[in-house]
Design goal:
With 363 residues, the chain is of the alpha/beta class. It folds into two domains: 204 residues, Class I glutamine amidotransferase (GATase) domain (Rossmann fold, 3-Layer(aba) Sandwich), CATH 3.40.50; 126 residues, Serine Threonine Protein Phosphatase 5, Tetratricopeptide repeat, CATH 1.25.40. The protein is 46% helix and 11% strand. The strands form three sheets. The chain has a seven-stranded mixed β-sheet with strand order 5-2-1-6-7-11-10. A two-stranded antiparallel sheet has the order 3-4. Helix 10 runs antiparallel to helix 11. It is elongated.
Length: 363
């Protein structure tokens, strides 16, 4: 077994546009005394994971950080201490501003913060979670929009934003540059929606799968999402297609897809690792060894690559080479003793005394 390195209001599905053609979206998540924990942690988890899943040419899809009025630690949910990464005076450019709910009077009554939000909104998108919508309301940012909030604050928001249409029972509502969500866990749905509309349904689904979150967007949204990442080039989308085949065990198609990318001089450690794994799963043991040897040239200390080479040699009956590669993997830090004892790919060498000696080196 090879070891892999894998993970009814109108709505606008336009993707985030950044200055200078940059790829990474800076997500500033506001934290403050009394902020609701899941309101900020849920979107933070989504954007952090999606940032890695949507990574292209070494650039994260999202760069996530916290912002507060001052640098002092704040308390969420009366038990969690959070140290803000930035203040409103030191924060880098914000492309997506997330305002979670909670004791929002700490924000709404602070003139400096409200002025900062107003300035950010000139170039940044905004997503409010729960009662964070009241910050946007105070600034008139919800006027002429269809919006929502936590179910217990619907009437209050309607009074606070008389020029907005406040809807009950929606997980989130997208107005293009402003997304409002219902309470607490609904921030996760709003964040996944932003991921899907920006980087495609595949990235959003992979993010939700990693989180073990049962995300099921409304059909009218699902039909509008692009499947693949619209912000990458043809090679990037070809990689996504191959990754889909890889994830679903369509090994022949995955081999073809990854091999085609190598033919265009797109070479990376993750591409070589997945191609080598797919080849092994297809029974292409010699080709798998060759690909993993290319990976070792890129990353000589990759213990997983040496382990996979050992598996392929073992399947070919090349006992001495398999044991040598396995020893290299262990010397480089491969410590999965359980895998060595159970992996059927290593059956041809399991009774060899040299294999038993290698096992004793592991914790």
């Amino acid at each position: 077994m090879f070891v892999s390195c894998l993970a009814a209001a109108a709505v606008s599905l336009s993707t985030t546009k950044l200055a200078n053609g940059e790829y990474t979206i800076n997500v500033g998540i506001v934290v403050y005394e009394g902020v609701e924990l899941l309101d900020f942690a849920g979107p933070g988890e989504v954007f952090s994971i999606a940032g890695r899943v949507s990574q292209s040419k070494g650039q994260l899809g999202y760069n996530v950080f916290t912002v507060a009025i001052t640098p002092e630690p704040i308390t969420s949910q009366q038990f969690l201490t959070v140290v803000p990464e930035y203040t409103i005076d030191t924060a880098p450019r914000v492309d997506l501003l997330v305002i979670p709910g909670g004791s929002t009077s700490a924000l709404r009554n602070n003139t400096s913060f409200m002025d900062w939000v107003r300035a950010q909104q000139q170039q940044a998108e905004m997503m409010t979670v729960c009662t964070g919508a009241f910050v946007a309301s105070d600034l008139g940012l919800l006027d002429d929009k269809v919006v929502t909030t936590w179910y217990g604050a619907i009437d209050r928001l309607a009074a606070s934003a008389p020029n907005a249409t406040v809807i009950h029972g929606r997980r989130f509502i997208d107005n293009g540059n402003v997304i409002t969500t219902a309470g607490v866990s609904a921030g996760i749905d709003g964040a996944l929606h932003h991921v899907a509309r920006t980087y495609g349904r595949v990235v959003a689904d992979q993010t939700a799968e990693y989180m073990e979150y049962a995300w099921s967007p409304e059909p009218y949204l699902s039909s509008e999402y692009r499947l693949l990442n619209p912000r990458v080039d043809d090679n990037g989308r070809a990689m996504q297609r191959a990754d889909i085949d890889y994830a679903t065990g369509e090994w022949h198609q995955a081999v073809d897809g990854y091999s085609a990318l190598l033919d265009t001089d797109v070479e990376s450690a993750s591409l070589l690792q997945r191609l080598g794994h797919a080849m092994m799963s297809e029974g292409q043991y010699k080709d798998s060894i060759a690909i993993h040897e290319r990976l070792v040239k890129l990353d000589p200390d990759n213990s997983t690559a040496h382990y996979n080479i050992a598996c392929a040699h073992a399947k070919l009956g090349e006992i001495n080479k398999a044991l040598l590669s396995l020893e290299q993997a262990i010397n480089l830090g491969f410590i999965r003793a359980d895998l060595l004892r159970s992996d059927p790919d290593l059956d041809p060498i399991r009774n060899d005394e040299r294999f038993k000696a290698l096992i004793t080196k592991l914790p």
